[in-house]
Design goal:
3-stranded mixed beta sheet; transmembrane helix; mainly alpha; 3 strands; elongated
């Protein structure tokens, strides 16, 4: 069990470092006025319009870095720090979340795959840790509970890796559009790209942490079978 705690602590520290850097970058780029003078809401609405998307609403939600696209009710949810903000950071976030709306409208394969996994994942995450814990205690008796727990954890790890191309592609679409549309200057584009890079790194760290934990559980299972 000490191994899993060590892995958890290492990736928790890495995650905290990346998260702190992300918040620092967004704070810095939020203080840079956008030369075009457009707000996050206006940018989002423009991007949706340019992609022929008319059934998605742009709404404001409370919190900081709470921005997301909800495919269930087709809403681009922008935090209060992005919705009316007119900065390089707001442009990056608004366009990125609309990138997910474009993926949805275009039936982007990785987004479809990730969405299809959600029902099974919600069930897996509810029982997974308990099954793994029971499996560890019963290792000397039977490997079946641990094997089931590892399989469920493998599903969550797969989900975290499927998320990576979804996030990278949304950022790619966002950066290409704000450039093509003249939303940002060259300097502002560099800021938007850097902000989205740090946001993407949070998903990378989460995926690698999940993989490391999965491999640890697999090693326990293989050790039991040996």
């Amino acid at each position: 069990m000490l191994g899993i705690y060590f892995i958890g602590i290492v990736f928790m520290l890495i995650s905290m470092g990346v998260s702190a850097r992300l918040k620092s970058k967004f704070k810095e780029y939020s203080q840079t006025p956008l030369s075009s003078g457009l707000s996050g809401r206006e940018i989002a609405e423009m991007m949706l319009h340019d992609n022929g998307i008319t059934d998605v609403k742009v709404v404001s939600v409370a919190g900081r870095l709470t921005d997301h696209y909800n495919p269930a009710d087709k809403t681009v949810n922008l935090s209060e720090y992005v919705y009316e903000a007119r900065s390089a950071a707001a442009a990056a976030v608004a366009a990125h979340e609309c990138g997910h709306a474009v993926q949805h409208a275009r039936s982007y394969s990785f987004l479809k795959f990730r969405s299809a996994m959600v029902p099974a994942l919600s069930i897996a995450s509810r029982y997974m840790q308990w099954i793994i814990l029971i499996g560890i205690f019963m290792m000397q008796t039977t490997p079946i509970p641990l094997a089931i727990g590892v399989a469920l954890f493998g599903l969550t790890t797969l989900f975290s890796f499927i998320t990576l191309p979804v996030e990278f592609d949304a950022s790619k679409r966002a950066l290409a559009w704000i450039d093509e549309r003249g939303i940002v200057t060259t300097q502002e584009h560099a800021m938007a790209k850097d902000a989205l890079k740090w946001a993407a790194l949070t998903y990378v760290v989460a995926a690698l942490g999940s993989l490391a934990t999965l491999l640890y559980y697999v090693s326990l299972l293989m050790g039991r079978r040996d």
